[in-house]
Amino acid sequence: MKAIEIRNKYLDFFKRHGHSVIPSAPLIPENDPSVLFTTAGMQPLVPYLLGEKHPEGTRLTDYQKCVRTNDIEEVGDNRHLTYFEMLGNWSLGDYFKEESICMSFEFLTKELRIPVERLSVTCFAGDRDCPKDAISAEVWKKVGIPEDRIYFYGKDDNWWIAGEEGPCGPDTEMFYDTGKPACGVNCQPSCDCGKYVEIWNNVFMEYFKDKNGYSKLAKKNVDTGLGLERMTMLLQGKETPFDTELFRPVMEKLEQLQKVDYIESRRIVAEHLRSSMMIISDGGRPSNIDRGYVLRRLIRRMIRHLNKLQINLEELSTLMDMNVDNLKEMYPDLEKNRERIKNVILEEKDKFVKTLTHGEKEFEKEMKKRQEIGSKKIEGETVFRLYDTYGFPPEVTKELAKEHGYEVDLRQFNELFKKHQEKSRLGSEQKFKGGLAEQTEETIAYHTATHLLNSALKQIIGKDAHQRGSNITVDRMRFDFNCDHKLTEQEKKAVEDLVNQWIQEGLEVTKQEMSKKDAIQSGAECMFIEKYPDIVTVYSIGEVSKELCGGPHVKNTKELGTFKIKKEESSSSGIRRIKAVLIK
After folding, report:
1. What does the pLDDT look like over 445-477, one tens digit per residue?
2. 208-245 residue pLDDT tens
3. DSSP states of 509-555 as a string?
4. Is-contact 514 546, C-beta < 8 A?
5. What letter would DSSP give residue 560?
6. Residue 163: exposed, middle, or buried by beta-carbon count in 10 A (0-12, 13-18, 19+)?
7. Phi then psi dihedrals of residue 444, to 5 deg
8. Which helix (H) or strand (E) holds 422?
9. Model's pTM, two decimal places?
């Protein structure tokens, strides 16, 4: 069964069970302070999981494009992906455990025709905070999962929460038995031996955690996620996602083009190419910070491995065309944005080639230093500096050193790189620490202020100034917008004064639900209009702002305090960035 067939079966199944099919949100979040990219299906639904009424009702389903960056360096093995697609269904205060489990079981066994004998499940074992999830276990037995294939684990395995505080609850996970031999007498879904593969996770949000502990939520939600690439691989009986139709054409082309055979490098090129193309299609551009830096890393890592395979970089254009043609049925935007995607990647390729040339010059300087002192060893600190400062790949340093008869202390490099990786991981986790818990009074105020800033820029800079991204924390807001010049001091002051004027006027913030067509005709603005469902939520701030948005917002602009621009700078070509604070 092909990936697109699995996706369509999923959406059709839940549509028949009363769910509204909502479109995938863009990979680049429009108004989410918690992450660089959309990382899960629940992420765009945060306001509704917190209590906002969704215009499409209480039962929702979709496929969601996702990017997770914590494990970029792991891509190349048989399972890690940066970009992936998550299928999901939600109950917003509607059904709960029994109906959710029954629908999941029906879909797996009836729609996908997975034999019951292949399925095992896990449930929450309970602890001093929250009781054992016996209800889920009983439902599983009732639908046909025998007791000896129902396992109980603690919070590390069967509990979900975003961040330290917020809505949370036990989950039940479904596992597919690949048929591989058991690793021992106690082989269970918790093993990493490869016999069991997790395929679906149903989260039952019935608790709220704060500094005082856990309490019961007034409204219970269900949030589920099923990875499309993994399910496709399993149903097709493949060993890895790279063996499925999602990657196979590019993988086969790479095998034809390569002069040196490295399976890991082929996987890295195929995966990073798809991920980069999807990010660029949704508006991403390479830069030296945040999501732009992630995109730059993906493209440059891909190019390094093309070099490792000794494939001419001019073949990149052919590989991109092949990817578009292979994936355009699933992602029509790739076809629409084909030329922009190619231009961005080829431009970044040219920049990186120059970086490699620069790195080689720095390497030559290091060689001369060692010749002067009679050393034949390159310290790991030097290898790391070449990598961190110049983007010079450590494997290239190692190859050049070998040609010159030098040894490389890769042990020290690996230690430094591990610390660097851990620092990056912690930073990435901090970005996601928000999630459901990050909707604080401060972030809600900053969220509202982005709407005022957007309107002020249109009045001062020009009506063609549009939001191109935002990032919000409890301490500040960051707002990207298209503009062809650096703002003058007069322009910045005019924007600042206009926002503060609207704040002082005490404008009411109101919300309406309407059809997308009516919203557009009314003048409401948003990024990625085509990504919104047919029924949308429109927030208006007096007569000065009207935007499609999920919320939440303050009730009146007087709650915002004083708006102050701290910095205005370039974000990427044609995109400017404002960093601002609210002072109360």
Report:
1. 998 999 999 999 999 999 888 888 777 888 888
2. 888 889 999 888 999 999 999 999 999 999 999 999 99
3. EEEEEEEHHHHHHTT-B-SSGGGS-SEEEEEEETTTEEEE------S
4. no
5. S
6. middle
7. -65, -40
8. helix 410-432
9. 0.77
